[in-house]
Design a protein that fits this description.
- It is a single chain.
- 33% of the residues lie in helices and 24% in strands.
- With 568 residues, it is an alpha/beta fold.
- Strands 2-1-10-9 form a four-stranded mixed sheet, sandwiched between helices. Strands 4-3-5-6 form a four-stranded parallel sheet, sandwiched between helices.
- Helix 1 packs antiparallel against helix 2 and helix 2 packs across helix 3.
Length: 568
């Protein structure tokens, strides 16, 4: 496995958002963001970005919105991130909201959070028309672009650029400057969970949570100021936010992907050295590599090259750069590291990228922990692990049972500066989320080895309890199924039958692995036979008893997690 030499982490830890703007300013004219506006590629320097944060904070102050609640809706952009940080710096509460959520739900979130203002990108211009006229709490709307807006005459609406200009005037006329926060443990962020379990709660984070997680990310990952990172994931998620803030602390160049349709083209254009991704993206990239090789009748050659490279590496010789030039070229030619989080990653995919010279380090987190909990260290990775706890927290395992290998499996629990304040207006759920001695219950199950490395085995809520009392964690079996190339996506559930619960695999076939003239019957027969072969490798109670096929992809959250609760 590819192991990098441990190197000093060269960055300036920050104490709060005010301190962060000072660090950003110190990076000067270096490019902070490269991003698209329509088809035009723009850039913004660190100095300009730092000034934008201050101007937004000052603009909110001038409008009487300092200390108020500001929702931010839209795709990733410097303006989005600056509004998030500027709102916190002004003593307010930032409310990131998923732009893909139905407008009725968005309006409900705004009411529940008692938002005072909304900053939004052009994708929300038409959708928010009703809210401008009728929303009971929001009194200020700031569109970043006024394209196709028919309600600009409404006094509640003010262009984002006007808010920034008002802030600049406040800085010039009144010498406005960011103040050291009075209380970095006050509520500063409200986040609505994505709802993969069918529920959506409002997580309250404080400024200290946000900063602690970002500093911990800087300490844990192998990045430096010379790196170029492409932002692919939705910006309203804590994972992407944490990584972007950490990258900004380092002084990294952040390039914003404008569309999933253009992601490979943008990789070639921006030539990233590092990527923060979720497993679905990594798996898709891996499948695309192998499918391209098969179409060119070079898959056997690629397997041979991987074997040859591995042998040479054991002798201390790295020949991968030349062998896999065509593979890495698809990602711009410079990619050497990926941080993967959000869900377990198949170890075979990690091994593939490792052979290509791209190290994948898995991280683990949860929204309620801002989100970072652990990262597999680049200098001492363990395959299949998410690493030890990061510097801002501690992790323990609450023992539940002993597995076949004699390992103590239990709920992963966290305590530290990254842990949330609680759920907004929900004391009952907040109480359930913590143990009596103050540890946060993640709901994830796993174990720790002798080096305190964490290995995740499944979700407590998704566990399937069989008639014989055996516990089956569907994620474990799904990992085996994902190794079957004819399966694109799958979910394992416990299906109630006349003679008890049966392990059922719900499968979406990978059409690309079949002849275009293959019938549905042939496709299903092939996959069924492959699952039957897989069963021979599994203990009896973990074997798939029923296979169900579907013709469409599973419904997913915007962070590309399958909504398991919708699989009936």
């Amino acid at each position: 496995m590819l192991v990098r030499k441990k190197t000093p982490r060269i960055y300036t830890p920050v104490k709060d958002v005010r301190d962060l703007t000072r660090v950003l300013k110190s990076h000067g004219a270096k490019i902070a963001f490269r991003y698209f506006r329509g088809k035009q590629l723009l850039s913004m320097s660190y100095s300009e970005f730092s000034d934008l944060i201050v101007s937004i904070s000052a603009g909110l102050d001038a409008m009487g919105l300092a200390g108020k609640r500001v929702a931010i809706i839209g795709e990733s952009s410097p303006q989005w991130v600056a509004t998030y940080l500027g709102t916190i710096a002004a003593g307010g509460v930032a409310i990131p909201i998923d732009k893909e959520v139905a407008i009725e739900e968005i309006e409900g979130f705004l009411s529940f959070a008692e938002a005072d203002a909304v900053v939004y990108s052009s994708c929300m211009n038409e959708k928010l028309a009703n809210a401008v006229e009728n929303h009971p709490t929001v009194q200020h709307f700031f569109p970043i672009s006024t394209d196709k807006i028919t309600y600009m005459s409404n006094p509640k609406v003010k262009e984002f650029d006007d808010l920034v200009a008002l802030g600049q005037q406040n800085v010039h006329d009144n010498h406005y400057a960011l103040k050291t926060p009075k209380d970095i443990r006050r509520m500063a962020v409200m986040l609505f969970t994505s709802g993969t379990t069918g529920t959506s709660k409002c997580v309250m984070l404080c400024e200290n949570n946000v900063i602690a997680a970002a500093n911990a990310a800087c300490s844990a990952v192998d990045f430096c100021k010379e790196d170029v990172v492409v932002s692919v994931l939705p910006i309203h998620h804590t994972y992407e936010l944490c990584i972007e803030i950490a990258a900004l602390i380092y002084g990294i160049e952040l390039c914003v992907n404008d569309s999933l349709k253009h992601v490979m083209r943008n990789f070639e254009q921006f030539k990233p050295t590092g990527l923060p991704l979720v497993p679905l993206f990594v798996n898709t990239m891996d499948k695309r590599i192998w499918e391209t090789a098969r179409k060119k009748n070079k898959d056997k050659m690629l397997k041979g090259a991987i074997k040859l490279s591995g042998t040479a590496r054991k002798m201390g010789i790295d020949i991968g750069t030349g062998l896999f030039k065509d593979v890495t070229g698809a990602f711009g030619g410079r990619l050497n590291k990926i941080i993967s989080g959000g869900a377990p990653l198949n170890t075979s995919v990690v091994a593939d990228f490792d052979a290509f010279g791209i190290q994948i380090c898995e991280g683990y987190g949860i929204t309620e922990c801002s989100p970072l909990v652990a990262v597999n260290p680049y200098y001492a990775p363990k395959l299949g692990s998410v690493g030890p706890a990061v510097e801002c927290c501690r992790v323990r395992i609450d023992p539940d049972h002993i597995d076949e290998q004699g390992r103590t499996i239990g709920e992963i629990q966290v305590k530290g500066d990254n842990v949330m304040l609680g759920y907004y207006k929900n004391e009952e759920e907040t109480a359930k989320a913590f143990t009596r001695d103050g540890w946060f219950r993640t709901g994830d199950l796993g174990y720790m080895d002798e080096d305190k490395y964490i290995f995740i085995t499944g979700r407590k809520k998704s566990v399937i309890v069989l008639e014989n009392g055996k516990n089956v964690f569907p994620e474990e079996i799904e990992e085996h199924l994902e190794n079957i190339e004819t399966i694109a996506e799958c979910v394992v559930i416990g299906r109630e039958g006349e003679d008890g619960i049966k392990l059922t695999a719900v499968v979406y076939p990978n059409a690309d692995r079949f002849d275009k003239n293959a019938t549905q019957e042939e496709i299903q027969s092939t996959i069924s036979a492959q699952i039957k072969d897989l069963n021979k490798q599994l203990v009896a109670y973990k074997q798939i008893r029923v296979i169900e096929f579907r013709n469409t992809e599973f419904e997913k959250t915007t962070s590309r997690k399958i909504k398991r609760h919708l699989v009936k």
